[in-house]
Structures are given as structure tokens and as C-alpha cells.
Specification:
Elements (H helix, E strand, L loop, with lengths): L2 H24 L3 H14 L9 E6 L1 H7 L6 H13 L4 E5 L6 H7 L4 E6 L32 E6 L9 E4 L1 E4 L2 E4 L1 H9 L7 E4 L2 E4 L2 E4 L5 E4 L6 E4 H14 L9 E6 L7 E3 L3 E3 L1 H6 L2 H5 L11 H14 L6 H26 L5 H20 L6
Parallel strand pairs: 1-12, 1-13, 2-3, 2-13, 3-4
Antiparallel strand pairs: 5-11, 6-7, 8-9, 9-10, 14-15
Helix pairs in contact: 1-10, 1-12, 4-5, 4-7, 10-12, 11-12
């Protein structure tokens, strides 16, 4: 083949592949990637899906009735009692800094846990996890405490506004690993006690379930919906109605989380959903987590592998005949599907489908163009 033509084709393919990877990161292909992720999740061995989450927002009306501008011990106890009466699996609360003993008592047999803003750690310390943290995990401020009836994890909203979001699920505190609020919800929904949450080979383990994390202690997800959101008053009314009339509880087995949403809470504009509270952004990860669709990104070498495979296609089978190009393309797609299943099933790495497949398809077309133009030398 003409050397100059070969360099031009290689350059064009490389630019196309890198552009597709950039558009993938921006979220251009999210609709297709969600469908691909759903297919992977449905075809790999996975533990049973987690229960739904209901986010209870402590709104301005509840604040006025309580005569305060922030969540208090009475609010926490009322929430825990209502969650318990409605048959919730667990009750979490964000931001309560007082002694939670009253909340624990009101919850009865329902496990309770708390979340605290990353830069404002609880005075009693984060709940430590069994096992050693990864050295590259970020150091959590404050101290690690001890395991008790009330678990404490950090709250960090997901990063990113387009494409995959990233959310931190674990951190280190000296020589101890500490969980996020979301990791505590994941573990308790699996039926674990706080002493059963462990770190093993850089992953979080709760009984037989494993949550694979990257070098930062994070995982990624594609937004696939948000949990149900109700107000504190709506929860109390639902609990009173259920106790009075019986029937089926609409929140049975749910993980219920109480978070402030009063006027002093800064809301964030999120594309497609208007202004939301930090708690709503945080809870958006639950749907992906509960359906086993959390994932990691492939290493930085993956785009280079895709480009190399495309060049092999251009200067190999795609030059020979239409039939050879078609068969090679189909074979490449099948190999990609099998490789994606294997990597997602074993390490939760999600290979980008659209950039990979379009690059291979473009390589096949380029190869035929090269041949028809007479640049292939045969």
C-alpha cells in the first residue's frame, strides 16, 4: 500500500476513535450504553436485586411545625418509628448530629444508620470496616470510631453532569477503611450487620455480595431513574393511615432515608430534573446499585487497543473482499460482546460499546474504500 495513504487512513481512524471516546464521556451515547449495560447485567451471574429506596425530605412545612430550621432528635425518632411501622428494611438519616439512641429505640428491629457531609465528620467517628483500605483511597477527615448500633458513613454526591457519574463508596482513615452512607445502605439492604461489612482485595464485601471499587474507592453508574421522593409529612400521614386501616404498606422492604430539604439547603440545577437537593443527587445512584449496574471504566490503554484492532481490520480482511470484510466485522462484534461479558462479570469493567463498534465498522468501510481506490497495491 502507498505509505502516505496508509498514514492518512491510520490518522483518520485514530481521530475518529478518539472523537467517539470523547463523545462517549460526554454522554452522547448514553441511551445505547444503558441498553448495553442492561444486557450485560441480565447475562452475568449476580446476586438478587436490592429493595427500592424512598427518600424522605424534611421540608419547610415540617420545619415550621417543629419550630426549628433543622432536623432534630424528635424528627429522627418520628421518622424511625414511621419507617418501622411501615415495614421498611432500614432507616437512614442524613445530618443528625445528636445522640441517636432515641431514634434507635423508636426504630425497634429496623437497622438505623447516619450520613455526614464529607468535610464535617461526626464527633463519634466514622464506622470502621473490617479489612485494610487501599493506599490510593482518599483520606477521610476526622477519625474512625467503633462499631455500634448506629453506623456512620460519609455523604458525597456523584461527580459529573454528562455521561457516567462517579460516586465514592469507601475511603481510608489512617489504617482503617470507612464506608460511605450509600455503602451502608447497600450492606444493610443485603441483610448484613455493621460488623459484616468488609474490605477484600479493594472491594466492599457484604456476605456473598461484592461491590467492586476503583483505585479511588469509587464506582460509576449511568443514571437510570431516581428513587421515590416524599415529604416528612406525607410519611407520617402514610404511617398513621396504615396503622389505622391496615392493608399493604406501600413502603414495605424499602430502604428509607431522611434528608433535609429546607430553604437553607443549597439546591443544584441538574439537566433534565431541574433543581434538586444534594440528597436527591446522591440517591440517584441507588437504582444502579440495587440492580447490579455499578461499573468501572477500562484502563487508559483501551482506546489504543481499539485503534490497533481497527488498523488490523483496515489493512487485513477488509481489503480482500466485501464478504471477508463482513465476516470479519461480525466476528469482531462477537468477540467484543464475549469480552465485555467476561470483564463485566469478573471485575465490573464496562467496555464502551458505541465507540468500539463504530470504530470497527468504520475500519471495515475504510478498508473497502482503500481497496476500491487502488491504494492497496493489489
Amino acid at each position: 500500500m502507498n505509505r502516505a495513504a496508509a498514514f492518512v487512513v491510520a490518522g483518520l481512524l485514530s481521530l475518529l476513535s478518539l472523537w467517539l471516546q470523547r463523545e462517549h464521556a460526554r454522554g452522547t451515547f448514553d441511551t445505547f450504553e444503558r441498553a448495553f449495560l442492561s444486557w450485560l447485567a441480565a447475562n452475568v451471574a449476580a446476586s438478587k436485586s436490592l429493595p427500592p429506596m424512598t427518600l424522605v425530605l424534611y421540608d419547610d412545612e415540617a420545619s415550621e411545625l417543629a419550630g426549628t430550621k433543622r432536623l432534630g432528635l424528635l424528627d429522627a425518632a418520628l421518622f424511625a418509628r414511621a419507617a418501622s411501622r411501615l415495614g421498611a428494611t432500614a432507616a437512614g438519616i442524613e445530618g443528625i448530629r445528636e445522640d441517636p439512641s432515641r431514634m434507635i429505640e423508636a426504630a425497634g428491629a429496623v437497622p438505623v444508620f447516619g450520613g455526614y457531609e464529607w468535610r464535617n465528620p461526626p464527633g463519634q467517628g466514622w464506622t470502621p470496616l473490617t479489612g485494610a483500605p487501599v493506599a490510593t483511597w482518599e483520606e477521610a477527615p476526622g477519625l474512625a470510631g467503633r462499631v455500634g448500633l448506629f453506623a456512620r458513613g460519609f455523604v458525597l454526591p456523584p461527580e459529573g453532569s454528562g455521561g457516567a457519574r462517579e460516586i465514592r463508596l469507601a475511603a481510608r482513615n489512617g489504617e482503617r477503611a470507612v464506608p460511605s452512607f450509600l455503602a451502608l445502605a447497600w450492606a444493610v439492604a443485603r441483610g448484613c450487620t455493621w460488623t459484616e461489612i468488609a474490605v477484600n482485595d479493594g472491594s466492599l464485601v457484604a456476605k456473598k455480595a461484592r461491590l467492586v471499587l476503583d483505585a479511588r474507592g469509587s464506582a460509576k453508574f449511568l443514571p437510570v431513574g431516581a428513587p421515590a421522593v416524599i415529604s416528612m409529612n406525607e410519611l407520617l400521614v402514610a404511617a398513621e393511615k396504615f396503622e389505622r386501616e391496615g392493608g399493604d404498606s406501600p413502603f414495605r422492604t424499602h430502604v428509607m432515608v431522611l434528608a433535609p430539604a429546607t430553604a437553607d439547603v443549597s439546591r443544584i440545577a441538574v439537566e433534565g430534573s431541574g433543581e434538586v437537593t444534594p440528597a436527591e443527587r446522591w440517591a440517584s445512584a441507588w437504582e444502579a446499585m440495587r440492580t447490579n449496574k455499578m461499573f468501572l471504566s477500562p484502563a487508559g490503554w483501551y482506546p489504543a487497543v481499539v485503534i490497533a484492532a481497527a488498523l488490523v481490520m483496515v489493512f487485513g480482511p477488509a481489503r480482500r473482499s466485501n464478504r471477508a470484510a463482513t465476516v470479519a466485522t461480525i466476528f469482531a462484534f462477537l468477540v467484543f460482546a464475549l469480552l465485555s461479558l467476561g470483564m463485566f462479570g469478573s471485575s465490573r469493567v464496562l467496555l464502551p460499546a458505541v465507540p468500539t463498534l463504530l470504530t470497527i465498522l468504520a475500519a471495515s468501510i475504510f478498508g473497502r474504500v482503500v481497496h476500491r481506490a487502488g491504494w492497496s497495491g493489489s
